[in-house]
Amino acid sequence: MLLFPPAMDDGIKNDFPDKSSKNLLFSNIRKHVDLGADEENLVLGFFNVTRRPRKTLFLQQGNLCRRFYFVQQGSVRAFHTNLEGKESTIMFAVEDWWITDMGAFLNEQAASISLETLDDSLLFEIDSEALEKMLFTLPKMEKYFRILYQRAYVREQQRVLDAISCPVEERYLRFLEKYPKIVKKVSQKQIASYLGVTPEFLSTVKNRIGS
After folding, report:
1. Residues 39 and 30: beta-carbon distance below 8 Å
2. pTM for this one?
3. Which of 8, 123, 165, 199 could bridge to 192 as Cys pair (CB 3.0-4.6 Å)?
4. What is the pLDDT along the chain (211 residues), one digit of tens a residue?
5. 100, 40 in Cβ contact below 8 A?
6. Strand runs (DSSP E) across the chain, as ranges?
7. Distance CA 116, CA 190 (A)
8. How many of the other CB atoms lie within 10 Å of CB of 26?
9. Strand order from edge to edge, sheet including 114-117
10. Dist. CA 140–CA 151, nearest whole Å
11. SS3 2
C-alpha cells in the first residue's frame, strides 16, 4: 500500500464544552472500571475534542493512523476503497462507540480504511503517544482498553461467522437492530457493501421481508 503524507486535520478543536458533554465518555468507561473525579479530570487531559461537519473525511486510507476516536455525538462510517475505486463499508460507529483502524493505530502503520462523518459529529480523540502516557499514569485504564480490544475482536469474529453461516435476511435484520439510526443516513449501496451483497440483491431481500 502506498503511504501518503498525513492529511491536514481540519477538525475544529475546542475546550470540553461542559460537564454534561463528558458523561457519555465516562459512562462508557465506568461500565468496566471505576474512576474518581480527580482521575476523570486526569483522563480528560489526554484527549482533544473535535467537532466535524457532516461528510468530513478525517482519516484517509493510505495515511498514517494516529488517533483513536470516541463518538460523543453523531455517527461515522469506515470504508475501504479497492484499486478499481469501489468502496466497501467496513463498519459504522454511533454515539457511545469507539472507532479507528485498530491494526494501523496500534502498529503505527498506514490506514487500510477511511473514516467519514455521516452527520455533524463531536469526537473525543486520543493519539497513540497520549494513550501510552495515560495507560502508564493510570493503570486501571489499561484494563478498560484491554476490554475494548477483546470485545472488538469478538465482534469482528462474529461478523465473519455470520457472513458465512447466516442468510442475508437475518444479517440485514441484525443490521437494523444494531444501527437503527444509521439506516436513514446512508445509501442502500453502502448498506449492501457492509453486508457483502449487491444493492439489487439487498432490494430483493427488503421486498421479501417487507422492510
Report:
1. no
2. 0.84
3. 199
4. 333 333 334 455 555 555 555 688 999 999 999 999 999 999 999 999 999 999 999 999 999 999 999 999 999 999 999 999 989 999 999 999 999 999 999 998 999 999 999 999 999 999 999 999 999 999 999 999 999 999 888 888 888 888 888 898 998 988 888 888 888 888 888 898 888 888 899 889 888 887 6
5. no
6. 12-14, 48-52, 57-59, 67-73, 75-81, 87-94, 98-99, 114-117, 121-127
7. 13
8. 15
9. 57-59, 114-117, 75-81, 87-94
10. 17
11. coil
* Residue 113 to residue 111: CA distance in whole angstroms: 5
Q: At what angle do helices 188-195 and 168-178 cross, to 10 degrees?
A: 120
Q: How far apart are CA 110 and CA 61, in angstroms?
A: 7
Contact 67, 124 (CB under 8 A): no
Q: Per the structure block, which three cell numbers stand in for 162? A: 455470520
Label residues 67-106 b or e (16+ Cβ within 10 Å = b): bbbbbbebbbbbbbeeeeeeeebbbbbbeeebbbbbebbe
pLDDT the model gives residue 1: 36
Single-letter amino acid code for the residue at 5 = P
Name 80's Cβ contacts closer than 8 Å, sequence gap at least 6.
61, 87, 88, 90, 112, 113, 114
Long-range CB pairs of 139-145, under 8 A, 24+ apart, other chains included? 140/33, 140/34, 140/35, 140/39, 141/29, 141/33, 141/43, 143/32, 143/33, 144/29, 144/32, 144/33
Amino acid 7: pLDDT: 36
